[in-house]
Amino acid sequence: LFISFISSVTPKLIRYTSILSPSIQTKNVAVLGASGGIGQPLSLLLKLSPLINNLSLYDIQHTKGVGVDLSHIETQVKVKAYVGKEQLSDALKDMDLVLIPAGVPRKPGMTRDDLFITNATIVANLVSACAKNCSQAILAIITNPINSTVPIATEIMKAYNVYNEKKIIGVTTLDVIRAATFVAEAKGLDSLRVFVPVIGGHSGNTIIPLLSQISPPVSFSQQELDSLTSRIQNAGTEVVEAKAGTGSATLSMAHAGARFSFSILDALNGKTGIIDCGYVASQETEFKYFATPLLLGRNGVETSIGVGKLSEYETKLIEKAKPELNANIQKGIDFAKQYL
Ligand code: NAI
User: Fold this and answer.
1) Any idea which residues are catalytic in this one (predicted)?
2) Alpha carbons 201 and 199: distance in angstroms, whole number
3) CA 250 to ligand 1 centroid distance, Å
4) Residue range 137-152, pLDDT digits in tens
5) Rounded to an integer, what distance in angstroms lies between the CA atom of residue 166 and that of residue 164?
6) Which helix or strand (DSSP H or E) is residue 337 part of?
7) pLDDT tens profile 305-339
8) What is the C-alpha separation between 20 and 53, in angstroms, rounded?
9) What is the ipTM of this complex?
10) Is there a catalytic annotation at residue 202?
11) Binding residue per annotation — 106?
12) CA distance 229 to 207
């Protein structure tokens, strides 16, 4: 089942076009943290999409300027900007999809977990507002540490009695596009036609690329396996170090966030066979939360495709990731209990 789903994945070319099938219903999308390094280019890419009707930009600062700037682009997407807590509920009304890239990014030497205190509170506040104002919307969490912020979002939605496991997803698409790019580079392939499932979590060792399950199949020496796995796991740090204190991945993350949004919007519109990886509450693994390829549908996550047949190498990677991933998850759950 896993293999047949994965091999049916079509090249992930982002479509920015004004030609729309009449059956497509445009949707309402909000970006919370819209003035940030990720928020601005992500909002730009969303403004170019024919799948979107209203684009709601929210931040605690600078959204008015971002909104006016984007509103001059000649696409049909209607942009509205909201700034400050008192405008948050208006920003969320009638949203189908809420993307959350609000929070502080890493500086050199920091782990994603070092962002916990600041970002956990931001995510908890924003998700509480979503629970009150757009509880039916799909929540796509970008804010790190994802391993913990997704459990926080879940606990908050549960506390408001509006939890729907199909609708909270941690965005791990950046790991998937990095894996495809690095594998294609190493093997001289067309990266748009390479799909590497990436499972686990979204930090260092917890990022587990399944190099034994690439579509189309590719084989590696042990040395290649080690170096590619390590590069994919540490690709975020590669960017943080190159940016030398000015932030983490923003442009590639904006692309990843837009790509993930278009998968969600296509699926909400009834397009079948849409598969993307994401970090979600997990039924079929031993972890409470785990990233796997997901089949998306009209209600969000239809089902997890699972992890397929793992190589011995990948099984060991999961074993190694276990303590960190479990600790990150528990930290999120404990924070939410205290917050609520
Ligand atoms: P940034 O600092 O450039 O932007 C963050 C934005 O969030 C700022 O505009 C800030 O005003 C806003 N913000 C802060 N508190 C807020 C609140 N309570 N409500 C609304 N907006 C608020 O940071 P950047 O580079 O855009 O990164 C954002 C987050 O995304 C970080 O946590 C970073 O670690 C994470 N990230 C996640 C990735 C992933 O693969 N999921 C990849 C790269 C970054």
Assistant:
1) 202 (proton acceptor)
2) 7
3) 9
4) 999 999 999 999 999 9
5) 5
6) helix 312-339
7) 999 999 999 999 999 999 999 999 999 999 999 99
8) 13
9) 0.99
10) yes
11) yes
12) 9
